[in-house]
TrEMBL record:
It comes from the Eukaryota. Coiled coil: none annotated. It comes from Rhizoctonia solani 123E. This is F-box-like domain protein. It holds the Pfam family F-box-like. InterPro entries: F-box-like_dom_sf, F-box_dom.
């Protein structure tokens, strides 16, 4: 058989040539098909024109008939009212009028059907509703975006019009978010349960994202759990992600007992299916434990499932966002992660929200492909020195957010950064330093060392006075966001033989800062941002802290930066959201 090779063409072109080689009359078939399609389109257009003409004719006839009908009904009314009493109305007259009232009901029902049909047609008119000119694929994609932005109200999409309803019901993925968020005073909520079951049915076989919310006010040991357990049995086998808003739940549940709803949720989960776990219980601190391993004094959440089975479910997780409730630090949940976010709980107990350095290092080493790291714990039992060999290599790291804990013992940001060795990828870093009065000054050498081995291109800092000293260690920095700065430490006079080189910024955003103008001018003079945006700041002169008016600030800055934007509303930093979400 002769083989043919085709030059690079589109898939449609290649298919055309392939068919033409194997079908001798292929060109004739294509031409006949084209003419048939063209003829069909022409006939369809003629049919539409004819139907519109018939609609106009029927509408005119209906108008004339209605006018005549109204005139006759009014005349009959006038005639009947002329008599002295109702007795003057003949029985056959009354019977015929009564029949007509019944006919009017049927006329009204017919008119309502016509009204629905014509309004539905109007909704499809592109000039009136331009969104209806979009192909189904694009409209479906828009629905996905709406679902992601507000998954709790996705039902509204199916209530707009018949086309939207048809598209929405034909797209199972739109219904893949299952939400059960009862009122704070009511755990068993039949309406919400029915809505959740409906979403499960409409999602067909799609993986599910389950959001379960429960507060200590609405839940106790006397609650009727069976209906919610049944929902969990429907959701769990296809559960791709689980978000638990517990709101003090672990405080209201006896520690020695397993919770039946949570036990059902985890025991019915398909191993290898769960990829994301989100917990939020900011007023508590505890671990997810099982009945076979837990002690009566354990805080957190206890489930009636074997530890090995729970670990098997956790082993497929790649994203962990945890506040207040955590898998044990030795769990397989911390293996193979791409996104790890550990937030502290504000319990007031000094022993909570702490992790030993050795435990954290083991967790980080178990996820060499980590891309996103948010960390707000206090690191305890940390070593005084750290060599290159003991750092954790994370070549794919792209986003790091590190913040101080809110307790008296503040976590210094370098306690985490000293453990990390990012790769060459651009790194976005957010460093939040809370409570500078109680927090010892950061170790500048440790931070400089981290910057030297990183490619930081975006930096978001709060209350970090040492920033001017650190900037020469950030040669690739392009975006700088400053929030709540109260002081800027000036670097020592530069050595003439070894001058400092500062990054040249594309953009600098300064918000809610209170600084001396001279220090701020020095910072801007070093970095010379192309765009400088200011919002809600106060600047002072040295000495008696005399406030400087913004007009003077703008005038002095204009000699350094050509594009200064004084914002009167909070700037839109959506493109830097990865640094701001918390």
């Amino acid at each position: 058989m002769t083989s043919y090779s085709f030059p690079k063409r589109s898939a449609l072109t290649r298919a055309y040539f392939a068919c033409s080689l194997h079908l001798p009359n292929f060109h004739i078939i294509v031409q006949v098909g084209w003419h048939l399609n063209h003829r069909n389109a022409f006939l369809l257009m003629k049919l539409k024109v004819k139907m519109l003409e018939e609609l106009s004719s029927a509408s005119k006839q209906l108008h004339v008939a209605l006018e005549r009908y109204l005139h006759i009904c009014s005349s009959i009314q006038t005639l009947c009212l002329q008599g002295p009493t109702s007795r003057s109305i003949l029985p056959e007259y009354a019977q015929r009028v009564d029949q007509e009232v019944g006919m009017l009901e049927s006329y009204d029902a017919t008119m309502q059907k016509a009204k629905i049909a014509i309004k539905s047609t109007r909704n499809y008119a592109f000039s009136i509703a331009p969104i209806n000119c979009l192909p189904i694929e694009i409209l479906t994609r828009i629905f996905y975006m709406v679902r992601d932005a507000d998954p709790c109200h996705v039902d509204c999409i199916a209530l707009v019009c018949s086309r939207w309803r048809s598209v929405a019901l034909g797209s199972p993925a739109i219904w893949s978010h299952i939400d059960y968020h009862p009122h704070s005073s009511k755990w068993f909520y039949p309406e919400l349960l029915e809505q959740a079951r409906l979403h499960v049915a409409r999602s067909e076989e799609m993986p599910l994202d389950f959001h379960l919310s429960v507060s200590c006010e609405s839940y106790n040991t006397n609650c009727y759990d069976y209906p919610v357990e049944q929902l969990c049995r429907l959701v769990a086998p296809r559960m791709r992600s689980l978000e638990l808003d517990l709101e003090g739940f672990s405080q209201g549940w006896p520690n020695a007992a397993a919770n039946s709803v949570m036990s059902t949720l985890f025991s019915e989960c398909t191993p290898g299916m769960l990829s994301k776990l989100v917990t939020s219980d900011p007023d508590c601190f505890g671990f997810v434990t099982t009945t076979e391993e837990g002690r009566p004094d354990d805080s957190g959440l206890k489930v009636d499932i074997k530890r090995a089975d729970l670990e098997q479910i956790f082993s497929s997780i790649t994203m962990l966002h945890l506040t207040g409730l955590y898998p044990r630090w030795t769990s397989h949940a911390y293996h193979g992660l791409v996104d790890l976010r550990l937030f502290s709980a504000s319990t007031g107990d000094e022993g909570d929200s702490q992790i030993a350095e050795a435990q954290l290092v083991r967790i980080l080493k178990a996820s060499p492909g980590l891309r996103i790291l948010h960390f707000e714990f206090e690191i305890i039992q940390w070593s005084e020195t750290r060599t290159n060999a003991s750092r954790v290599r994370l070549p794919d790291l792209e986003i790091v957010q590190v913040g101080s804990a809110y307790d008296v013992q503040f976590t210094r940001i370098e306690h985490l950064l000293r453990l990390l060795e990012p790769g060459p990828k651009p790194l976005h870093l957010a460093a939040r330093c809370h409570g500078p009065e109680s927090n010892p000054e950061p170790s500048t050498p440790e931070l400089k060392s981290f910057f030297a081995r990183s490619n930081v291109t975006k930096l978001y800092v709060t209350e970090l006075p040492e920033l001017p000293v650190l900037l020469p260690s950030l040669p690739h920095l392009k975006v700088l966001i400053l929030l709540n700065l109260r002081n800027l430490s000036q670097p020592n006079p530069p050595n003439p033989s070894d001058p400092l080189t500062y990054p040249q910024l594309d953009a600098c955003f300064v918000q809610s800062c209170s600084l001396t103008l001279d220090d701020f001018l020095a910072l801007i003079r070093h970095c010379r941002p192309k765009i400088l945006t200011l919002f809600d700041n106060k600047f002072y002169r040295r000495g008696p802290r005399e406030k400087v008016e913004m007009e003077i600030v703008e005038q002095e800055l204009s000699a350094i930066c050509s594009d200064i934007r004084i914002a009167h509303t909070r700037p839109n930093l959506a493109e830097h959201q990865d640094l701001l979400e918390y």
